[in-house]
Automatic annotation (TrEMBL), chain A:
InterPro entries: CheW, CheW-like_dom_sf, CheW-lke_dom. CDD domains: CheW (cd00732). The lineage of its organism: Bacteria, Pseudomonadati, Pseudomonadota, Alphaproteobacteria, Rhodobacterales. This is Chemotaxis protein CheW. It comes from Salipiger mangrovisoli. Residues 12-152 form the CheW-like domain. It holds the Pfam family CheW.
TrEMBL record, chain B:
This is Chemotaxis protein CheA. It catalyses: ATP + protein L-histidine = ADP + protein N-phospho-L-histidine. The modification Phosphohistidine is found at residue 46. The keyword Protein transport does not apply. Keywords: ATP-binding, Chemotaxis, Kinase, Nucleotide-binding, Phosphoprotein, Transferase, Two-component regulatory system. It comes from Salipiger mangrovisoli. Residues 250-305 are annotated as: Disordered. It is an enzyme of class 2 (transferase).
């Protein structure tokens, strides 16, 4: 059944869009395990500002990062709408604190554009590409880069 | 693929057989006349040989064969067990273990030692035995039923060929059939030994209506005329002996009622003939051969076990950990609801809690294994070390059945080996010196394991000369480990042994003193959450004590608060808790503070500050002090805000999803679902506050305000 859609038309990618640091980002839906409301976390000593702490996800201890702070966009302000996106990559599970989750975006591969040359290093490394949606632009988060950065920060 | 897994099974079995062999040999040492033990040893060697034959492991087979042949001579009491022979058996056992290992890893075994032992073994064999050309061609993968082993015929040639008549009564239990054994095959095997007559005893058959096809009701009485010794008969039944009632006895000439000869039936589907008379041996004639009897008792064999992939067990343990946390959370939530005292709910909740604990204990018990195999391996170490150093030593083990987590056992093997070697090499004196000191010439290494107050204690003791403290101090000074003018207490001197790069052997033997020091032992034990201590009495020996946690998955901890965060600190590390009084606290320098504990000044470390969770240190008199012993600065008092509770917590790794965090060993999940960090006192003390303005490596300091 699905095959009928493939062939002439391109493979569709699904993304979940969210906002962090007043910017619009998205993550491929397959990388996302779940979306949770923000609950207070346990702080970790000797960690950078973007590491909020650890949270109990059904018995697993997962670190929670402030995505906005990680991208150098400032610390996310406390807000009831804040949510944690639980994502998995390369065997590790992490949580990303974002301001809000917006929608599911279904786009063809061709409509994902390469990341324009930007000055913000931290942001550029962590973005795989951009998608134009109506009048706004959505940035595709490179989860591996976020994780790598995490490893570097922790070392 | 399947061939490999059968091979794996063989090697797993070999390990068990080798354990049985070592155990048997050490019991033989105590009582060489105990035929049961000799038989057990023989069987172990024989089974290894049988399996090895199936995998065409020729070297293993031929060595095992020689070993077995000598063993058989002992069994048939042609050979007397002497100390030298016993020693040879031990070495043969070691060699057999080496050969098995070499075969498993596809390595070349040590041919030199093999040849030497073979030669010695051969010297115990008469000419006839040597000429006894050996062939092994029974490629039977079915270890369960191995009916006719051609080399059993070899055994026959070694004993006299007089024909004897055996009466065998054989009544299978349902388990025998359930395990896939077939009586007919057993009878065939018996028939190969000589003239066999068999009669089925159908008296056990119930009425047709009550007949249960799964039950085993038929018994057989057999008469075998053979030249084989009785043990050969037992070997045929070896694998089913625990699954049936078996009674073998030799006809000593008295008149037995002649048997009504009926061809052996296979299963219990034969029509029941009217045979109310029991054909078996008359109850009056119960003069059992004591050997047969005791063999029967012993052949009950090990309890049935199950081999399970370790990963599955670990997954189960994790899940049960979740269950415990979940149970604690539910309890807490229900408490929060502040329901009117509904007795039912409280009772059920309590029952749930107990069940969850039971399950946890049960699951933990799966991972727990007796230390016996570990201790048995040490007997070889003692033997080799004694040989290499020309000393006489024996190993005494106590508490073999003490169970310890599997990982602990695995990771303890190396440190223990090292300590046992050390005990022989450094601890024990040479036989002459011992004799001169009025001690037994043979030194004793004592290995003991026990459970005490939630910990596992493992002691390695020797009855040697004790630590030469003067020598240790001299050496430490020579190596620059201690300043010459240092005044050290006895226990401080003893603990110098644990310093990296320390070795006291006056002459570097090829045994110890290879750069692996006691510090490695200490680190290995510390990595398991344990500690090592020494006690030594001049003239009567040294004892090392290793204290380990029972399991690595849960831990007893104090729930404390540090900078408004809930944390856990392992109870094992805490010596005592102190509520400081102002007059015991003293300032040192501008920022340091010490507390007077029974005459000693102990530095105070503010945990919150060291973890970077508090910008400033607390007032000196606030909070609670936890006295811990650390490697880096000895006794230290850790300041925390409060102690709330003492409880068992499930250890969760932080590293799996994040990274190691200095000062924190792991995390756990509390009853409210929140995560609490588990502190590592050693690391907390070492942590220097983030700010770089403390140049000295002195204990962290504290502003002291006198009230």
């Amino acid at each position: 059944m699905l095959d009928a859609n493939e062939g002439p038309t391109e493979a569709q990618f699904e993304f979940i869009t969210f906002s962090a640091g007043n910017q619009s980002f998205c993550l491929e839906i397959m990388q996302i395990r779940e979306i949770r409301r923000w609950t207070p976390v346990t702080k970790l000593p000797h960690t950078p500002d973007d590491v909020l702490g650890v949270m109990n996800l059904r018995g697993a201890v997962i670190p929670i990062f402030d995505l906005s702070a990680r991208f150098g966009l400032g610390v996310t302000a406390d807000n009831e709408r804040n949510v944690v996106i639980v994502a998995a990559a390369g065997g590790t599970t992490i949580g990303l604190l974002v301001e809000s989750v917006s929608e599911i975006l279904s786009v063809a591969k061709s409509s994902i554009q390469e990341t324009p040359d930007m000055k913000s290093d931290a942001a550029r490394q962590a973005i795989l590409g951009v998608i134009s949606v109506g009048e706004s632009m959505v940035r595709v988060v490179n989860l591996d880069a976020v994780l790598d950065q995490e490893g570097g920060a922790a070392a | 693929m399947s061939g490999n897994s059968i091979r794996d099974t063989f090697f797993e079995e070999c390990e068990e057989l080798l354990e049985a062999l070592v155990e048997g040999l050490s019991s033989m040492e105590q009582d060489p006349d105990d035929m049961d033990v000799v038989n057990a040893v023989f069987r172990a060697v024989h089974s290894i040989k049988g399996g090895a034959g199936a995998f065409a492991l020729d070297r293993l087979v031929s060595f095992a064969h020689t070993f077995e042949t000598v063993m058989d001579k002992v069994r048939s009491q042609e050979l007397k067990v002497t100390e030298a022979l016993m020693h040879l058996f031990h070495r043969s056992g070691d060699q057999l273990a080496d050969l098995v290992e070499a075969a498993r890893d596809d390595r070349e075994p040590n041919a030199e030692s093999e040849a030497a032992i073979l030669k010695e073994l051969d010297s115990y064999l008469g000419e006839a035995d040597k000429d006894d050309s050996f062939s092994f061609d029974a490629v039977t993968l079915d270890f369960g039923a191995a009916p006719a082993d051609p080399d059993l015929a070899d055994d026959a040639t070694e004993t006299e060929a007089a024909l004897r008549l055996f009466h065998i009564r054989f009544k299978p239990s349902p388990a025998l059939y359930a395990n896939g054994h077939e009586p007919l095959l057993l009878f065939d095997a018996l028939a190969e030994l000589g003239d066999l007559r068999a009669a089925a005893d159908l008296s056990g058959l119930p009425d047709f209506d009550a007949f249960d096809p799964n039950d085993a009701v038929i018994a057989w009485t057999l008469q075998l005329e053979t030249s084989e010794p009785e043990t050969v008969l037992h070997e045929i039944f070896e694998f089913v002996e625990s699954l049936c009632d078996l009674d073998i006895r030799e006809d000593d000439g008295d008149a037995q009622p002649p048997l009504s000869v009926v061809p052996p039936d296979d299963e219990g589907i034969a029509p029941p003939p009217p045979s109310p008379v029991r054909d078996g041996p008359a109850p009056g004639a119960e003069i059992l051969d004591p050997r047969a009897d005791s063999q029967r008792g012993e052949a009950r064999g090990p309890r049935p076990t199950l081999r399970v992939d370790l990963e599955r067990v670990d997954r189960l343990i994790n899940t049960v950990g979740e269950l415990i946390i979940n149970q604690a959370m539910i309890s807490q939530r229900i408490e929060e609801l502040d329901l009117p005292a509904v007795a039912h709910l409280t009772n059920e909740l309590e029952a749930y809690k107990l069940l969850a604990r039971d399950i946890q204990e049960g699951v933990m018990a799966i991972r727990a294994q007796p230390v016996k195999p570990l201790f048995q391996r040490m007997s070889r170490i003692v033997r080799e070390a004694a040989e290499a150093t020309g000393k006489k030593a024996r190993l005494v083990t106590v508490g073999d059945s003490t169970e310890v987590d599997k990982t602990v056992i695995e990771r303890l093997a190396d440190p223990l080996t090292h300590m046992v070697r050390n005990a022989v090499d450094h601890g024990l004196e040479k036989a002459d010196v011992r004799a001169a000191a009025g001690k037994e010439r043979v030194g004793t290494i004592r290995l003991s394991a026990s459970h005490r107050s939630g910990s596992v204690f493992i002691e390695i003791g020797d009855d040697g000369a004790g630590l030469n403290r003067a020598r240790i101090l001299e050496k430490a000074i020579e190596k620059g480990l201690v300043l010459p003018e240092a005044e050290l207490s006895e226990s401080e001197i003893d603990n110098l042994l644990f310093l990296p790069g320390f070795s006291t052997a006056s002459e570097v033997s090829n045994l110890s003193g290879r750069g692996v020091g006691m510090d490695v032992v200490k680190n290995a034990v510390a990595a398991l959450g344990g500690r090592v201590s020494i006690a030594s009495t001049p003239g009567s020996g040294t004892t090392f004590t290793i204290v380990l946690p029972l399991t690595l998955a849960v831990m007893d901890g104090f729930v404390i608060s540090v900078a408004d965060q809930t944390m856990v600190i392992p109870i094992a590390s805490i010596i005592e808790t102190i509520r400081p009084s102002q007059r015991d606290l003293h300032a040192v320098g501008t920022k340091g503070v010490v507390i007077l504990v029974r005459g000693a000044y102990v530095p105070v470390v503010d945990v919150a500050f060291n973890l970077g969770l508090a910008a400033t240190r607390k007032e000196a008199g606030e909070g609670v002090l936890l006295l811990v012993s650390t490697e880096s600065q000895g006794l230290t008092a850790l300041r925390v805000e409060a102690i709330h509770d003492q409880r068992q917590v499930v250890i969760k790794s932080l590293e799996s999803n994040y990274a190691a965090i200095p000062g924190v060993s792991a995390a756990t999940i509390l009853g409210d679902g929140k995560i609490a960090l588990i502190l590592d006192p050693e690391e907390v003390v070492k942590l220097q506050p983030a700010a770089p303005y403390f140049p000295a490596i002195t204990p962290p300091k504290l502003e002291l305000h006198h009230a």
